């Protein structure tokens, strides 16, 4: 029988053994993190303060921004701290927590993006019934269901992953605790619980993708029938950014989790997780705020209100 040592922590991947490059990496990630932090906090603040944005669409957008804020805060700050401290260690509890939170926020985001596609479908394809279908009680329940489902999924993934034995290398070939690199260093002969959970997650991902595809096929069919060019442009500007973010998010996550494990590390192993943990939280505020007329107007009002507190008091109830 092999000796099994109790693992009390892991070693996350360092991007370079050269101190100057480590500092450069830390600065780069810090700038990305600050952009994501500022952008998502700004969206949450603007939507909360402007009464005109208290609609289902912007309620979901505020939830998405909060999810993005939590998601990038789960992985990037720890990686920055490790780079600056020349330490790549993470405790067992820290690794479990990081994996659970990362799964919670990514799964919740996928479900929320699916709900947002339904909201856009009702708004564009059934506008006369929109207020009847998307009541406050209905859209709050949808958002709560997304969070609950993500929490359940995160618990399943983290529990199944850490039932495995880790008796060999403690080096995780990734800048945060993720399932594929943890499976690579596990000495358990079978990963049945993890495989079942991954199959379940893959099935949910396919279901969400199909549902979103059907929703947007109806949306684009309806949009193309709009007689005015301005109306078509407005509808496409709302939906296309959503689709782009979704495609990047789902595609990179699916490739990272479904591709066969390799003995040696590759650049792809490092880049893919960035596309579903770092890029969406950073790009979502830019996409939704710069391409959305109502968000830009509300942002200008907020800036004016900050500098001239007596100027526009009624717009922010």
Automatic annotation (TrEMBL):
InterPro entries: GPCR_Rhodpsn (IPR000276), GPCR_Rhodpsn_7TM (IPR017452), Olfact_rcpt (IPR000725), Olfactory_GPCR (IPR050516). Keywords: Cell membrane, G-protein coupled receptor, Membrane, Olfaction, Receptor, Sensory transduction, Transducer, Transmembrane, Transmembrane helix. Residues 39-288 form the G-protein coupled receptors family 1 profile domain. Its main location: membrane. It is a multi-pass membrane protein. It is found in: Cell membrane. It comes from the Eukaryota. GO terms for cellular component: plasma membrane. One of its GO terms (molecular function) is olfactory receptor activity. The chain crosses the membrane at residues 26-47, 96-118, 139-159, 192-214, 235-258, 270-290. Belongs to the G-protein coupled receptor 1 family. Odorant receptor. This is Olfactory receptor. The gene is LOC110200277.
